């Protein structure tokens, strides 16, 4: 899968580990930075380019990491076509895709440990939107908000 990944300084260490984890699984990773740890950097500078790449289809899914995952999810959801959520549990990592067509997984680099993050990423990447009528109906209502 073509997967984009991005992080600020709060998520930098976890991003590097997850990038290598996904590459080892054979995924093609588009790294939107940060490319070094810089305590003065700002998460929108990395998350917004990732979100635009997801929205345009350049990558199929995205993973955004900041310190808490909150700022990353807030910023990513400003981009039309993006459905991003801060995820801290296995169920939501796959159900968010299956029911809500989640396309960006947000994680907190200061919150979620490496093993848990790898499990969340695996659940997210392997999940597929079900296309069930009730989910399409709900998603259509959400998408209408992007036209307001
Ligand atoms: C950066 O210090 C931190 O505020 C940021 O990574 C993130 O946690 C924001 O939600």
Explain how this protein is built.
The chain is of the alpha/beta class and 148 residues long. It has a single domain (2-145), classed as Sugar-phosphate isomerase, RpiB/LacA/LacB (Ribose 5-phosphate Isomerase B, Chain: A). The chain is 47% helix and 16% strand. The chain contains 6 helices and 5 strands. It has helices spanning 12-24, 44-56, 70-76, 90-100, 114-126, 133-144, and strands at 2-7, 28-31, 61-66, 84-86, 104-108. The chain has a 5-stranded parallel β-sheet, sandwiched between helices. Helix 4 (90-100) links the parallel strand 4 (84-86) and strand 5. The radius of gyration is 14 Å and the shape is globular. The relative contact order is 0.18. The model has no long low-confidence stretch (mean pLDDT 98). The protein binds D-ribose. D-ribose is lined by residues 8, 10, 43, 66-68, 70-71.
């Amino acid at each position: 899968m073509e997967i984009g990944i991005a992080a600020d300084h709060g998520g930098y260490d976890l991003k590097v580990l997850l990038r290598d984890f996904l590459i080892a699984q054979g995924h093609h990773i588009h790294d939107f930075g940060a490319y070094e740890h810089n305590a003065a950097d700002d998460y929108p500078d990395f998350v917004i380019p990732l979100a635009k790449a997801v929205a345009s289809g350049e990558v199929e899914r995205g993973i955004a990491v900041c310190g808490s995952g909150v700022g990353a999810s807030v910023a990513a959801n400003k981009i039309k076509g993006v459905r991003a959520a801060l995820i801290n549990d296995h169920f939501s990592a796959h159900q968010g895709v299956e029911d809500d067509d989640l396309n960006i997984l947000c994680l907190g680099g200061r919150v979620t440990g490496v093993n848990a993050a790898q499990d969340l990423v695996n659940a997210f990447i392997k999940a597929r939107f079900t296309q069930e009528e009730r989910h399409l109906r709900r998603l259509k209502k959400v998408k209408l908000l992007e036209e307001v």
